Amino acid sequence: MTRxxxxxxxxxxxxxxxALSEARRYTDDVLLINAGPYGTTCxxxxxxxxxALLEVAHAYGRRDWLAESGIGGTxxxxxxxxxxxxxxxxxxxxxVAGPIDTAESLGExxxxxxxxxxxxxxLEVNGERIQAEKVIIATGTRPNLPxxxxxxxxxxxxxxxxxxxxxxxxRLGVVGxxxxxVELGQAFAQLGCEVHGFTRGxxxxxxxxxxxxxxxxxxxERQMTxxxxxxxxxxxxxxxxxxxxxxxxxxxxxxxxxLGRRPNIEGLGLENLDVELDERGxxxxxxSTLRIADLPIYITGDVSGLRPLMHEAADExxxxxxxxxxxxxxxxxxxxxxxxxxxEPGAGHAGLTxxxxxxxxxxxxxxxxxxxxxxxMAGRNAGRLQLYADERDGRLLGAELVAPDAExxxxxxxxxxxxxxxxxxxxxxxxxxxTVEEGLRSALQAVRRELGKRRTQPDLPLCxxxxxxxxx
Length: 472
Hints:
The chain is of the alpha/beta class. It has helices at 14-23, 41-45, 47-60, 63-68, 81-104, 179-190, 210-220, 310-325, 373-377, 406-418, 423-427, 437-450, and strands at residues 2-10, 30-34, 110-112, 116-119, 122-125, 128-137, 141-143, 156-157, 171-175, 194-198, 225-227, 233-236, 241-245, 248-252, 254-257, 261-263, 297-299, 338-341, 346-351, 362-368, 384-390, 396-403.
C-alpha cells in the first residue's frame, strides 16, 4: 500500500519544523519523516546548551575584575565543572522538549525512519512507500571528524558530544577556531581549564577584517593559547592526547574537534533524482526559491549550505514550504545576514563582511572599544568596530566587530543595513549616554569624515520630518 501526501518534510530540525509550521497554514496534508534524534541541532547540541555554558563561564570570568573593583571574597569562588555540566544539560533538556512535543503531536503523520527517494515523487521509509506531490529536504548536518582521530576514542569529541561530558578534564585542546571553537574554548578557559586553540587559517570566528580579527585574538590570548596557520596532528600521549601543529607541541586531557559540518545526505537515494550534485554531494538548487532543478523538491536549512545559522534555517524553512505550495509566487527576499559569536566581548558581522566588499567605492570607519567610556566602567573595554559604507551615497553596507554587547550592536546594524540607511540618517537616531552604542556613533562619524562630508546642520532631523513618537 502507498500512502499519499501533499507535502513531505524530511528532517525535524529547525528548518524542517518551521517548514512544517508554515505548510500547515495552507494544508493539513503534511508528513514529517525524521531519521535522526529529535529536538533540533540548536536545542540539543548547538546554540542553546553552548549559551548556557557561556553564561556561567562569563559570569565566573568576572571575578578578577570584581576583586580589582573592591569586592572581597571573589578568590574563594571555585568552578565545579561537573556541576556546571549538569546545569547545562538541565537547561538543554528543557529547550529540547518543545521541538520533541511538536513532532509527537503529529501522531501518525510523524514517521521515524530513514527515507529514500525512489523517484522525485516517491519515497520509501520503513518498507512503506509514500507518494508525495512535493518534498522538502531538511536533513541537517553533522560534525566533521577525521577518521584517524576516532582511534583516540572519547578523548576527542565534537560539538555533538561535548555537553554530555560528565567531568571534563582541565587540559583542553581545540582544533578549529570558528564560532563554535572560540566560544567553547573561551568558556572552558574562563572556568579554569588550560586551553590550547589551533586553527588552520589566520582568521577566527568567521571574521575577515584583519584589524577586527587581531582584536579578538588579543582578547582570547589573555585566557588561552591561540595558534594560527597550523595543521594539527593528534597522537596518543603519555597521559592524554599529544597535539602538534604550528611549531607547537602540547599534551591535553581531551580535544574538541571543531572542523565544520557535513550534510546528512547518505541513504537519501539522491542518485535516483537524476540532478546535478555540488562538491558536497548536495543537489544544485535555486538559491531564491530553494527548488532543485525543475523537480517538486526543495532543500532547506543547514544541509543547503547557504547560511548555516538557526534563524536562517527557520527562514529557509518558511521559504521552502511557501514555494512548494505556491510554486508561481514571487520569490521572498532574504533578510540582511548577520552572525554573532557569543564570546566576551562578542564578535560577528552584519551585512557585507570585509571579504565580500566591492573592490572599490567603499569607505570605512572604526571605533576602538578599549577606550570606550561605558565599556571601561564595566571592565569590558576591548575590541574594535569596523563599518563599511558606499562612497557614493553614504549608505551603510556592512560591519565587522569585536565589542561588549556585540549581539545588540549587530542587530542595530543589520536593521539599519536592511532599511538601506545612510550614515547621516543613522547619526540622526538617538544615542543615550553612557552606553556602548556611543562607540557605534564614533565609528559612524569616522565614516562620514572619510566620505569627505561636512555637516550642514546638527545631527537632528528637521522639524517638517514627521516623528512617529510625536504623532497623535
